[in-house]
Amino acid sequence: MTPVKNILFIMADQLRWDYLSCYGHPHLDTPNIDRLASKGVRFDRAYVQSPVCGPSRASFYTGRTVFSHGATWNHVALSIGERTIGDYMRPLGVTTAVVGKTHLFPDRESLNHLGLDPESDLGKRELQPGFDPFERDDGLHPDQSFEGSGKKLRYNDWLKAQGYEGENPWHDFANSAESMDGEIKSGWFLKNSNLEARVKEEHSETAYMTNRAMEFIEDQGSKPWLCHLSFIKPHWPYIAPAPYHNMYGPDTWLPVHRDDRETENANPVFHAFQNSRVSKAFSKENVRETVMPAYMGLIKQIDDHLGRLFDWLEETGRDQDTMIVMSSDHGDYLGDHWMGEKELFHECSARIPLIVYDPREEADVTRGTVSTAMVEAIDLLPTFVQAVGGEPAYHRIEGRSLQDTLHGNHPEDWREAAFSEIDYSLYSARSFLETGADDSRAYMIRTERWKYVYFTGFPPQLFDMKNDPSEFVDLGRDPNYEEVRSQLQTRLFERLISRKNRVTLSEHDLNASANTEADAGILIGYWDNLRE
Fold first, then answer.
1. Beta-carbon neighbour count of residue 129 at 10 Å?
2. Strands 95-100 and 225-231
3. Could you report the per-residue pLDDT of 91-113, keeping only the tens digit for each?
4. What is the pLDDT of residue 1?
5. Residue 135, pLDDT score
6. Which residues contact 193 (CB under 8 A, 6 or more apart)?
7. Residue 135 β-bridge partners
8. What's phi and psi for 373, nearest 5 deg?
């Protein structure tokens, strides 16, 4: 089979799976993402390894669960010993760069321990979690070096060059509005979300990152590449430039998805998250309604710029040898289940959109189809490696390549359950619950019928996804479902102990090394000759 030459890996931060028209949103029209779905496979049940930016992305980039790679939260460094996309693609001759967000914290302690110069080629890659440096932007305040990399925000300096005044045009223009009397209205405050951002649309983060991705691709010439175009939006600050700030009114919003039963005798951990500042805010009248125009407008803006990018790829012929993937790192509650942000495991948080376009002839049989397989974020890395002609290192990688599914040969032994987890030790919920740092953990297993969430030290949650797809009725303490919970807890345990921790020895080398002691002169258990 002819390998794919290039890979365009697109990620939108905090994009819900159900806020695209190809996934059924009745009013948010995303024709360009839909166009990609018509050319590829749309995965209908894809889940992240953790519904938090940093750990989720670390799993996308390593092909390993959070339980294995250890970067359990945004500011927990990914170990220098963990191999990421660039580490797997570079030996295959593929230049691998990020344009936008990674939200991974570099392992400076190990860098110093090993005596690696952060300004060396290797040091720079480690500071960019394995990617070749190009355009890193984590959507953070530009007065701070993002994620400990020691680098300032290039986009902020670019805005200055375009004539935007002040030291922080990222905030004052791209993520703020202006009142009638000239007062800056910060996008950090939810009450300003429906206002028009001060930045021109063509100078916004989404437009800028799309342009930079095209520049990277152009710079590669005929050389193979993987471009991780990682949009900062529709992640907060929720604020959009004109004309996207007021495209969507009340008649276009999905109804809020919550029920009073969720607040009555709620699971203690769920209750703690419902009592966080952001959840209380999104549970108030008018807050969600103020945010929705910006959230939906930012998605529409991404789709429009992807249309520009896809047209350019087709005009240059690059679409013929480029695998294109569209996904997100997690969803957004937006007031559903009396919650804001993400973090827990309801479908609006842990489930993501995933569309894969494989340009090869072998994928013609699946174009425009929908897969209901249980897919996880960790499946993309082995898919990429196999697509460019490599062999996934399955003694380290815990995901499975999607290539057979893309080519119409879905494996019969595919997983029947999706797994996700969270470390909430750095959240206000931990103070509310008075738990220890190592006890603030939760794990989800999601089968066709059930969703089971195990909380360390607290009762579990259980949802019947067949009879209660809204996830309103928690059966976690219902005595009638004890056997179901026991079976799912066993299934969760089996998933946890199946992690790949023999990462320095492949199965091939392990098998080749078995029973070779005698050949090396190590005679253990023999009586007086090698036959006994």
1. 29
2. parallel
3. 999 999 999 988 887 788 888 88
4. 81
5. 87
6. 187, 237, 238, 239, 290, 291, 293, 294, 295
7. 99
8. -65, 145
What is the predicted pLDDT for the residue at 514? 82
List strand residue ranges (DSSP E) for 175-286, in order.
176-178, 184-186, 225-231
User: In sequence order, which residues have a C-beta less than 8 Å from that of residue 516 and are 6 or more positions away?
Assistant: none
Q: Which phi and psi angles does 155 have, rounded to 5°? A: -60, -40
**CA distances (Å), 379 to each of 64, 84, 119, in order?**
9, 13, 32
Residue 145: the pLDDT is: 47
Mention every residue, 6+ apart, whose C-beta is less than 8 A from residue 284: none
- Whole-angstrom Cα distance, residue 414 to residue 275? 38
Q: How far from 327 is each of 43, 90, 331, 520, CA to CA, in Å? A: 10, 23, 10, 51
Q: Write the CA distances from 170 to 45, 152, 160, 197, 205, integer angstroms.
A: 36, 12, 9, 11, 9
Grouping H, G, I as helix, E, B as strand and the rest as coil, residue 15 is: coil
12-63 per-position pLDDT tens digit: 999 999 999 999 999 999 999 999 999 999 999 999 999 999 999 999 999 9
- End-to-end Cα separation, the chain, in angstroms: 49
Which region among 195-199, 284-288, 396-400, 504-508 has the lowest average model confidence (pLDDT)? Answer: 504-508
Phi first, then psi, for residue 464 (nearest 5°) are: -90, 100
Asked if 254 and 25 touch (Cβ cutoff 8 Å), the reply is yes
Alpha helices in 344-416 (DSSP H): 347-350, 380-387, 403-406
3 state DSSP class of 408: coil
Rounded-to-integer distance, Cα 438 and Cα 123, Å? 31
Read off φ and ψ for residue 192, nearest 5 degrees.
-100, 5
Q: What does R_g of the chain's alpha carbons equal in angstroms?
A: 24
Percentage, residues of the chain above pLDDT 90: 81
pTM of the model: 0.95
Which helix or strand (DSSP H or E) is residue 99 part of? strand 95-100
